[in-house]
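stage 2 :: seqdesign
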């Protein structure tokens, strides 16, 4: 059998091109720094088209591989404005965009975005460029899926086809500091499709599709504005994500699913691979009979992990203290899902910093005041669009006295005595987390959902309003 392992893993670790002068200040690897750099270029080049700008960025980062040229043209030929980047911004942008993983497991070319997730800029910008090209040059939108996700997924599935499918994607990682992010370390050995590359690919597919469909009368906004609207939004109290109709980053999984799922992903990935091989004159690779199976198995994991499952913000991201002692393993699958509200904090959290602060406060209370080894809950649902990892899938929690070893305890941040959580937060728990748990083998398919108050006699948790709501949910039993 042909082994593709080395062939495709090599490009992930090549050294990047060092520019003549080092920047004097260390730049933060967050989306805001990137947007500010983009804004500076726009401000010093009035009238600059966003398409010219993304092309200049592609050229800066050296993303002129054969497939990109096939769909978008060579950036060195198309850029009528190479002079728009100053020397120092060139150096910064090259480093910011160029994606690599070092031998030490540090992923570069990625930025921390305000919602607490991490995004690779290259696939994001390729998606935006495809969409802008279609819109501004009046050409059909081509290549959005292959450029943002299709190629990476296909090559990742194939390069690791000798490993179980779950190893062919990911991983996520941790920033050295969420306030001053500089180094992003992956949590295990990388695939070509790290979480950040997939997040950037989803965002690129969403923004590219949206731009390509702008009505004829509407001109695309400046690139900095496009990125700010998607990443730097404000959610309002009382409605949160329920009131949001435009596309924003915490909705990337559901929106990318609605755009891409109707496309027949298996065929799309196979076609993308065939194109890559044709362009690289390596068609012989496609003759291997295992290719179709590798893609099929890989896509099943992709759909489960990135679409069915909600994105879970890992402990390192919210600043968790270590577990005290040794965690006790849970015996899986468990039969019960216990629903809680936190009561205190009593307000739903709407941003990554606020939800993280709430998580740290609850962990502090459980460890210091209660003397427990860790935050009690298995998972906690924010109203920012994300679920926060407590004790996680594999470890015994401390949430529902007498029942901890037979179920997960999941809490929505807020006091739901008189009001309900947002629809979005409830759906994350009811549909996404539950399905993710069942499909992942952590929760029995015929599991029972109970409110905390049904298991013990001393609490009104999860609050009167929320409890009457969950009584109508599937899997709820009296
Ligand atoms: C770039 O432009 C030159 C001259 O205009 C042309 O001959 C060449 O084919 C172009 N290359 C690509 C890759 O588009
Ligand atoms: C929780 O909500 C109830 C009903 O709105 C209210 O009476 C109670 O004081 C609230 N508790 C906290 C801690 O906010
Ligand atoms: C759920 O399914 C398992 C295995 O199929 C079975 O042993 C168990 O009795 C079922 N539990 C309930 C509550 O129906
Ligand atoms: C709670 O109290 C009720 C009535 O006092 C009793 O019937 C029930 O068994 C108790 N439940 C638990 C879990 O202790």
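stage 2 :: out
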């Amino acid at each position: 059998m042909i082994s593709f392992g080395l062939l495709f893993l090599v490009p992930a670790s090549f050294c990047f091109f060092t520019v003549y002068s080092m920047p004097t200040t260390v730049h933060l690897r967050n989306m805001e720094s990137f947007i500010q750099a983009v804004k500076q270029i726009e401000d010093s080049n009035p009238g600059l088209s966003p398409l010219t700008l993304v092309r200049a960025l592609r050229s800066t980062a050296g993303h002129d591989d054969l497939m990109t040229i096939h769909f978008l043209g060579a950036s060195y030929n198309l850029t009528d404005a190479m002079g728009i980047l100053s020397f120092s911004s060139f150096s910064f942008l090259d480093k910011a965009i160029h994606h690599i993983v070092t031998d030490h497991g540090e992923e570069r070319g990625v930025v921390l975005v305000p919602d607490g997730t991490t995004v690779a800029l290259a696939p994001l910008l390729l998606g935006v460029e495809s969409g802008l090209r279609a819109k501004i040059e009046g050409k059909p939108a081509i290549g959005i899926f292959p450029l943002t996700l299709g190629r990476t997924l296909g090559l990742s599935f194939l390069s690791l086809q000798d490993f179980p499918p779950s190893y062919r994607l990911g991983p996520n990682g941790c920033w050295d500091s969420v306030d001053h992010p500089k180094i992003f370390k992956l949590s295990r050995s990388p695939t070509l499709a790290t979480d950040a590359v997939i997040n950037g690919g989803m965002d690129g597919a969403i923004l590219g599709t949206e731009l390509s469909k702008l009505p004829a009368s509407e001109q695309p906004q400046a690139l900095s504005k496009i990125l700010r609207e998607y990443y730097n939004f404000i959610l309002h109290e009382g409605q949160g994500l329920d009131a949001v109709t435009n596309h924003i980053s915490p909705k990337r999984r559901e929106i990318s699913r609605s755009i891409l799922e109707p496309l027949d992903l298996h065929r799309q990935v196979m076609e993308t691979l065939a194109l890559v091989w044709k362009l690289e004159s390596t068609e012989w690779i496609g003759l291997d009979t295992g290719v179709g199976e590798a893609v099929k198995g890989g896509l099943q994991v992709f759909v489960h992990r990135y679409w069915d499952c909600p994105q879970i913000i890992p402990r390192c991201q919210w600043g968790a203290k270590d577990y005290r002692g040794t965690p006790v393993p849970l015996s899986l699958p468990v039969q019960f899902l216990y629903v809680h509200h936190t009561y205190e904090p009593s307000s739903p959290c709407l941003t990554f910093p606020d939800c993280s602060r709430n998580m740290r406060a609850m962990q502090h209370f459980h460890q210091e005041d209660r003397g427990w080894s860790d935050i009690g809950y298995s998972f906690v649902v924010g109203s920012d669009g994300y679920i926060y990892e407590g004790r996680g899938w594999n470890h015994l929690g401390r949430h529902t006295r007498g029942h901890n070893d037979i179920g997960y305890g999941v809490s929505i941040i807020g006091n739901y005595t008189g009001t309900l959580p947002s629809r979005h937060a409830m759906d994350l728990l009811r549909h996404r987390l539950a399905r993710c748990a069942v499909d992942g083998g952590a929760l029995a398919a015929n599991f029972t959902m109970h409110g905390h108050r049904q298991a013990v006699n001393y609490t009104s948790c999860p609050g009167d309003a929320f409890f009457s709501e969950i009584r109508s949910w599937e899997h709820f039993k009296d």
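stage 3 :: structure notes
- Residues 195-212 form the longest helix (18 residues).
- The chain has a mean pLDDT of 92.
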